[in-house]
Amino acid sequence: EPEVTQTPSHQVTQMGQEVILRCVPISNHLYFYWYRQILGQKVEFLVSFYNNEISEKSEIFDDQFSVERPDGSNFTLKIRSTKLEDSAMYFCASSIGRSPLHFGNGTRLTVT
Amino acid sequence: AQRVTQPEKLLSVFKGAPVELKCNYSYSGSPELFWYVQYSRQRLQLLLRHISRESIKGFTADLNKGETSFHLKKPFAQEEDSAMYYCALMQGGSEKLVFGKGTKLTVNP
Q1: Which of A4, A108, B16, B20 is deepest in the core (most CB within 10 A)?
Q2: Cα-based angle A96, B5, B36 (whole degrees, multiple of 5)
């Protein structure tokens, strides 16, 4: 069964550094998403992406965040200048229509 | 704003016992509701969605609009059901899933 893949599984970075989290969605899917889960808290929506543009974003997704689909397969989340509070598990997801979502295994981001 | 509440952080039952994981939501429109499951060290997976009205791995969930609930039930729990269970809501016209905090189910032998 096809899966959403995310790399790396764990990323450690220093505060103020830029990070790029990478995702390969399922190939025939059209909607792409990023969610995050801070330790002990809810899974939270960050952004959805459809037809090569952001279709919806949350208040968390401020100017420090950006997403890109640089080619036909990858979907990336960039955090321009990481803060300690960006430490979380970041999940990529994709779907054919609006639902249901298929999630990746996540990237654990640790900002020190 | 829409909200999903899972009142139990932890739930522990014995194998063969019935299990019910509670989920309540607040949303004024007609939501789409889902249960996602995360087994140890695995990804979040869709377990079921209310519009399918199907039973997956023996689990069912009925949307009760009067009580704004979408409780997940299984008549006879198995050890392999031990996992984190997340209830989630998607409102009409949105692509955003709103998750509850999750319930960790442990099925003891």
Answers
A1: A4
A2: 35
Per-residue burial over A22-55, b if 16 or more Cβ lie within 10 Å, else e, is bbbbbeebebbbbbbbeeeebbbbbbbbeeeeeb
Residue whose entry in the numeric block shows the structure tokens 């960006």: A86
Phi-psi region of B90 (alpha: psi -120 to 50; beta: other; left: phi over 0): beta
Q: Do residues B62 and B71 touch, judged by C-beta distance below 8 A? A: yes
Residues 6+ apart with CB under 8 A from B49: A99, A100, B32, B33, B34, B35
What is the least distance, in Å, from the CA of A99 to any CA of chain B?
Answer: 8
Residue of chain B minimizing CA distance to A36: B99
| pLDDT score at A10 | 97
Q: How far, in whole angstroms, is CA A10 from its chain's centroid?
A: 13
Nearest CA in chain A to B101: A42
- How far apart CA B6 and CA B87 sit, in angstroms, is 7
Count of beta carbons in the 10 Å neighbourhood of residue A1:
4
pLDDT of amino acid B26: 92
Tokens (6 digits) for B25: 């939501």
**DSSP 8-state code for residue A85:** G
Token pair recorded at residue B85: 């269970």
Whether the CB of B46 is below 8 Å from some CB of chain A: the reply is: yes
Classify strands B32-38 and B83-90 as parallel, antiparallel or unpaired.
antiparallel
